[in-house]
Amino acid sequence: MKEVLIQYMKRFSDLSEPELMKLTEDIPVAVFKKGTILLSQGDVPDKCYFILKGCVRQFAVDENGNEHTYQFYTEEQSVTIFSEQASQYSLGCLEDCTLIVGDLTTEQEAYDMNPVLETMTRKMVFEDMGTMRDEFSSFTSSTPEERYQALMDKRPELIERVPQYQLASYLGIKPESLSRIKKRAAATHLRIVD
User: Fold this and answer.
1) How far, in Å, CA of 88 to CA of 62, rounded?
2) pLDDT for residue 194 is more than 60
3) Which sign does the torsion angle of CA 122, 125, 129, 130 carry?
4) Could you tell me the residue range of the domain that residue 98 belongs to?
5) Alpha-carbon span 12 to 10, nearest angstrom
């Protein structure tokens, strides 16, 4: 399973595969059942994750008890909420997940032992931040139909992996609106194919 991590790390390092394998020897891998809450809203984050297999949802519950989905993380994505205060978000496993688990409280020790790991992590974080910034800019300036189309273009697997009401929340619309958008998109696709 760590082969997924090693392939990902190759993008951010000039280390050889044997060097990367040695670097990942002591990295803990854990399996979590579908429904497991990795972080509860209001708790202080002390772990970070890298997804080898599965899907994790970032969400929050507002003062009226309504859930709002902010992100879905899948294979080869890191999941970290950097905060020394209570988290505004929860993280939950939507599927059985195999995750690499990092301890934020001992992160600096790991970097001190493996300086190359710190450089690699910094590159990974910058890439993630750039992607999130671009997605947020696109999201705020697009219509619900455009958001759905962007999801279909960039992450179509989520349509089958995620409950519709959570997808609708992620897209900033009601489930009924998502159903209408999907029907219109399917009808348009049929016309194009015919």
Assistant:
1) 10
2) no
3) positive
4) 2-115
5) 5
